[in-house]
Design brief:
Layout (H helix, E strand, L loop, with lengths): L1 E3 L10 H23 L2 H6 L8 H21 L1 E14 L1 E7 L13 H15 L4 E7 L3 E8 L2 H9 L13 H11 L8 E7 L8 H10 L2 E7 L6 E2 L1 E2 L4 E2 L9 E2 L3 H10 L4 E3 L3 H13 L4 E13 L1 H17 L3 E3 L2 E3 L2
Parallel strand pairs: 3-4, 3-6, 6-7, 7-12
Antiparallel strand pairs: 1-2, 2-13, 4-5, 8-11, 9-10, 14-15
């Protein structure tokens, strides 16, 4: 079975008919120019070393080289042997706080950006776990259902902003409840929730939701974003610090105590986000130590690549095209 590893490069093939049309237009333009100089036969006799259709040959070589380069970049492959591997892992729902307090800049560049970086590093370190994403502020929304397509999750993660949740607040209880609904209701274990938040405006129902989650076998880890000392709340509309009624900056602080209580009640761990890699290693280490279940078989195919043959052919064609000199007239080289 043949396939292209990077088929998106094949869109560049549209350049070839465009170049062909331009080349034909140039031929007609040059022919009209020669006719204005005199009789075409007499003009051609003034050109030393004229080879009919020389320019057409050079164009064919260049276009063929471009075709080979495009196919080489797309990497034509042939299927080889296949191997079936049983995939084991756990289901992980990441609950990300996107309230406006996550725009505070007590950690650079801001809390939300660092949280996204952490999630991205976590997925880089995952092997075969299924992962999903819930975003929450005053309400919780399922952004990505459980999947093993980490690239798709990262793509959707990049677009996450506070204005995606119009209701402000930090309803951690709703986030945990929605995360639990996203798991398989048949499983009584193999489930983990990673809650990433600054813990501010913690709602009273959270600990009750945590208790319900642990009763169904889920383990809840929390990650604190920000600093206990706090930072001014950034207003994305005015591009400045948000002020209270007295004109003083509104300060948002990391509520570590609440996040620790949630992690303790959820039989998980609390992590204060400092170094992103270290935090990701700690959380993924905890997930890897959980009991894992069979998530089905995955078939891996060993493909043989042929890109090098196309790139070598393109190089040869370009060298040949370069060696074909243009015709000369009185010491000047021209293309015909």
């Amino acid at each position: 079975m043949l396939r292209f590893q990077h088929p998106s490069y094949l869109i560049i093939l549209v350049l070839i008919p465009i170049l062909l049309a331009l080349f034909v237009a140039m031929i007609y333009w040059r022919r009209n120019k020669l006719e204005k100089l005199g009789t075409p036969l007499l003009v051609q006799q003034q050109l030393l070393g004229l080879i009919p259709a020389r320019q057409t040959l050079k164009f064919i070589l260049s276009a063929s080289a471009l075709l080979c380069v495009i196919i080489g970049c797309a990497n034509l492959q042939k299927g080889g042997k296949t191997e079936t591997v049983q995939r084991k892992g756990v289901d992980v729902m990441i609950a990300l706080d996107v309230s406006k307090s996550m725009l505070a800049k007590d950690i650079q560049p801001d809390r939300l950006t660092r949280a996204k970086q952490l999630i991205s590093r976590m997925t880089d370190k995952m092997k075969s776990d299924r992962v999903g994403l819930v975003i929450f502020a005053g309400r919780a929304y399922l952004q990505v259902p459980l999947t093993i397509d980490y690239s798709a999750l990262k793509l959707l993660l990049n677009s996450v902003q506070p204005d995606m949740v119009p209701t402000q607040g930090t309803v951690i209880g709703d986030a945990i409840d929605l995360s639990m609904q996203s798991f398989s209701q048949k499983e009584k274990k193999y489930k983990s929730i990673v809650l990433i938040s600054d813990g501010e405006d913690h709602d009273e129902s959270a600990l009750e939701k945590v208790k319900q989650a642990t009763e169904t076998g889920a383990i809840i880890h929390t990650v604190g974003i920000g600093s206990p000392q706090g930072a001014p709340l950034y207003d994305p509309v005015t591009k400045a610090e948000k002020l209270d009624e007295q004109g003083n900056p509104v300060i948002t602080k990391l509520n570590e105590e609440e996040l620790r209580n949630i992690a303790r009640a959820g039989n998980g761990t609390y992590t204060l986000l400092g170094n992103t890699d270290n935090a990701a290693d700690k959380i993924i280490g905890e997930i890897d130590n959980m009991e894992q279940h069979n998530l089905g078989a995955v078939v891996f195919a060993d493909y043989i690549s042929y890109f090098q043959y196309f790139l070598f052919t393109a190089l040869v064609l370009l060298v040949v095209e370069w060696l074909i000199a243009g015709a000369r007239t009185k010491g000047k080289t021209v293309s015909v």
